[in-house]
Each structure stands twice: as C-alpha cells, then as structure tokens.
C-alpha cells in the first residue's frame, strides 16, 4: 500500500481546489467519506445561518422585506444560486419543500393521464420515497396499476435501451434518478429525454446524488422537471430545504398543490380567496418558506460559484479513479465486489463495494475514524467529496480498510445495520 501514498501526495500537490478543504469543519483524525448522505458544514454556511439569525434578532418581522437577504424572496434567491449547477434559467429553479413533497408537486402537476396514455415509467433500483410518491399520485387517479418499472439486468445498473424500450403510446411520464443511489451509475439523461419527447412523454429526474457532483444541462436537454435534496453534495445541512426545477414551457400549467406562497407576490397580501398564481417557478411553493432551514445554503452555494462545477467534477473523477485503481490492485483476495461503473461518463461521485460482512466492515471502519455508508443488503458506499476530501484521505481510507480485512477486525462487529444506515 505504501506506494499509493506517494501517488496520493503527488495528486494533492497538483490539486487546484484542495485549499477549499479549509472551508469545512472536519474532525481530527477523521476520514469523512459519507458526503453523498450528509455533506459537512462549511464556515460560510455557518456564517450565513448566523447572519439570518441576526436579522431575526435585529429586524423582527421586518426581516421579510428588509436586510441584505429578505426572507420573502429567499426561496427564489437560492434557486438562482442553484440554477448554474443544473444548467437552467433563473425563474425556473426554486428552493422549497422537501424532495418528496416536490415529487408530489411536480408529478401531480405534469401528469395528465388519458384513457390510453396513463403509465409512469420508474425503475426497480430507485430510492423508495420516489416510488411511494409516484404510486400515491397514481392511486389518487385510480391508476394504481400504472407503475411500470424498468428492470436491472445485474441488480445494480440500468441499460438506457431497456428504459427506452418501455416507452410507448401508453406512457404519460418517466421519472428516474440521475444517479442511482446505490451503485453510483449516471443515467444518460440527454438520450432518455430525447427518446421520451419523441414519443410525447413528460420526463423528470431525481438529482439527489448528482447536483453538486456532476454538471447538468437540463434546459438544453429539454428535461421537463427535476427534484433534489440539498444536504448531500450541496452541504446545506440536515433537513435543508429541497430544490425543484420545472421547464419554463410548463409554467403555464398551474401547480397542483396550491398554497399562499405560490401566489403572485404582488397580490399575495391582498388575501383574495381566488388563487393568482405566480408566472414562474415560484407558484410551486406551498406554505411559508422554512427560512432557518434555507439559511445554510446561502453560504454553502457560494463555494460552488467560486469553484465551478467543472472543477468539482474533474477532481471527483480523479478521487474515485484512484480509489478504483487501489481496490483493483490491493483487494483481490478479500471477496470484495466493486459495483460502481468504471467509465467516467457512467460513474457518479461515490464508489459502491459489496461484501457479505458489509455492515461489520462499516462498523469497523467507523471505529478507526473512517465514515462510510452502509446500504442493504450487503454494500458499503464510499464518497470522497472534491471540496473537502484529499487524495491522502482516499489512501488512508483504503489503508485502514485493508488493515481491518487483514486482521479480521470487521468480524468482531455485528453484521447488522443500525436503525439509521
């Protein structure tokens, strides 16, 4: 393993964004490899929270319209900060609600079933909450049997052509992850969108594992809608307010779940019982925005505007590339399966490895200061994040993994996940 330390040091010396690690709070002797579950706190995020708290302290209710960051417009302001990360126009991106609520909101608004066109394509590998939300919409329409799941050939990845093969005149909508949350496979969003639109099908994506990790061009690709959380690669903090994109061409279709913050801001406080929808993405807001849960994003997103998503992606690929190279060279004897696709176009920001004692391995790594992520039934996700992980972090993570495999430490831990995994 020692030779890989020199490689890691060389890569760190060549790293043009390595200094951003100092922007984040990282514990001593800790190798945090779980940024695709919960990103770390940055000093800028902390500062923006304190600034918003100070506005509350000094301005009281006038904080809604006064100060440097008026709360009344904060959802839209943060949406503008995220627009560049997904290749979208201002006015089509919003910080609002939770990811699951945004799925309900977007699907309920854009799903327009007819007698012959009513099915929704999802995939069998998707995160459960996405499926729950789509199924709930279909149930409300009396179309409980309309969910059409794209199947995986290997249990880990999806084939673009298999998904396209399901697109026929009976399909009204496609809703897929941009990156599969277990394997880290990137789906070909551009090709899938093109194929869907050739058949007159609405298509949307869950960007939870891709925003802040890879570039997107949603407007140019013609994607109809997208949802995402902001607490993973965007480092917005636990439970931070989610994001929503709806293509400007759909803004004339009024949001299904209506609430007073979706009203035209000029008439909102007229308190008329006739809903006057905002003309842009703002209409997708429902209730009063969660200001304190958005505040960290004001600072966290500044870092992305400084660095640029292209540089983040470049380093991310190099980090996971080093990880795959070391795993291939040093771990053949341990019964570890490397699940994540190898190609740069197909690999997201984390690496998934499989082992029959994955839960025990995860616990053993944590006992040694490495923070990975267990995924049932037998997988460990390792996510080196470009903004705050170094190449030496990758080396030490794998060095410790090799040590616990060599001495069998992982066998001393129970091979069962915790309540939260």
UniProtKB/TrEMBL annotation:
Pfam families: KYNU_C. Pathway: Cofactor biosynthesis; NAD(+) biosynthesis; quinolinate from L-kynurenine: step 2/3; Amino-acid degradation; L-kynurenine degradation; L-alanine and anthranilate from L-kynurenine: step 1/1. It comes from the Bacteria. Keywords: Hydrolase, Pyridine nucleotide biosynthesis, Pyridoxal phosphate. The modification N6-(pyridoxal phosphate)lysine is found at residue 232. The keyword Ribosomal protein does not apply. It is an enzyme of class 3 (hydrolase). GO terms for molecular function: kynureninase activity; pyridoxal phosphate binding. InterPro entries: Kynureninase (IPR010111), PyrdxlP-dep_Trfase (IPR015424), PyrdxlP-dep_Trfase_major (IPR015421), PyrdxlP-dep_Trfase_small (IPR015422). One of its GO terms (cellular component) is cytoplasm. Its EC number is 3.7.1.3. It catalyses: L-kynurenine + H2O = anthranilate + L-alanine + H(+); 3-hydroxy-L-kynurenine + H2O = 3-hydroxyanthranilate + L-alanine + H(+). Pyridoxal 5'-phosphate binds at residues 99-100, 127-130, 206, 209, 231, 260, 288. One of its GO terms (biological process) is quinolinate biosynthetic process. Its cofactor is pyridoxal 5'-phosphate. Homodimer. Catalyzes the cleavage of L-kynurenine (L-Kyn) and L-3-hydroxykynurenine (L-3OHKyn) into anthranilic acid (AA) and 3-hydroxyanthranilic acid (3-OHAA), respectively. Belongs to the kynureninase family. PANTHER family: KYNURENINASE. This is Kynureninase. It comes from Lacicoccus alkaliphilus DSM 16010. The gene is kynU.
């Amino acid at each position: 393993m020692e030779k890989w330390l020199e490689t890691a040091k060389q890569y760190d010396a060549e790293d043009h964004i390595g200094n951003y690690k100092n922007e984040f709070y990282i514990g001593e002797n800790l190798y945090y490899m779980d940024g695709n579950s919960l990103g770390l706190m940055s000093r800028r995020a902390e500062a923006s929270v304190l600034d918003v708290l100070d506005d509350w302290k000094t301005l009281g209710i006038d904080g809604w319209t006064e100060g440097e960051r008026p709360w009344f417009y904060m959802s839209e302001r943060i949406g503008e900060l995220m627009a560049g990360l997904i290749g979208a126009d201002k006015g089509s991106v919003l910080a609002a609600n939770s990811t699951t609520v945004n799925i309900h909101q977007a699907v309920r608004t854009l799903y327009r079933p007819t007698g012959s066109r009513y099915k929704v394509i999802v995939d069998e590998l998707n995160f459960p909450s996405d499926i729950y939300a789509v199924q709930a919409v279909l149930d409300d329409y009396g179309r409980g049997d309309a969910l059409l799941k794209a199947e995986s050939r290997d249990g880990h990845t999806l084939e673009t052509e298999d998904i396209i093969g399901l697109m026929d005149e009976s399909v009204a909508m496609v809703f897929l992850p941009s990156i599969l949350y277990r394997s880290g496979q990137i789906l070909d969003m551009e090709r899938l969108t093109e194929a869907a639109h050739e058949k007159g099908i609405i298509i949307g994506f869950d960007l939870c594992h891709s925003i802040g990790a890879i570039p997107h061009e949603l407007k140019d690709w013609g994607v109809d809608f997208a949802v995402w959380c902001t607490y993973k690669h965007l480092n917005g903090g636990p439970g931070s307010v989610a994001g929503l994109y709806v293509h400007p061409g759909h803004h004339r279709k009024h949001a299904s779940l209506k609430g007073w913050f979706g009203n035209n801001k000029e008439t909102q406080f007229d308190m008329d019982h006739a809903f006057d929808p905002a003309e842009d993405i703002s209409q997708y807001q429902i209730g009063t925005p969660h200001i304190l849960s958005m505040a960290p994003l004001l600072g966290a997103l500044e870092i992305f505007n400084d660095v640029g998503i292209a540089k983040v992606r470049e380093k991310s690929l190099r980090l996971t590339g080093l990880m795959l190279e070391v795993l291939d060279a040093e771990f053949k004897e341990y019964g570890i399966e490397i699940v994540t696709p190898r190609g740069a176009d197909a690999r997201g920001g984390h690496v998934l490895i499989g082992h029959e004692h994955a839960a025990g391995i995860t616990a053993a790594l944590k006992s040694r200061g490495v923070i990975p992520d267990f995924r049932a039934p037998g997988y460990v996700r390792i996510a080196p994040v470009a903004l705050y992980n170094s190449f030496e972090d990758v080396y030490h993570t794998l060095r410790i993994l090799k040590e616990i495999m060599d001495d069998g430490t992982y066998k001393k831990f129970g091979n069962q996940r915790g309540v939260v995994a």
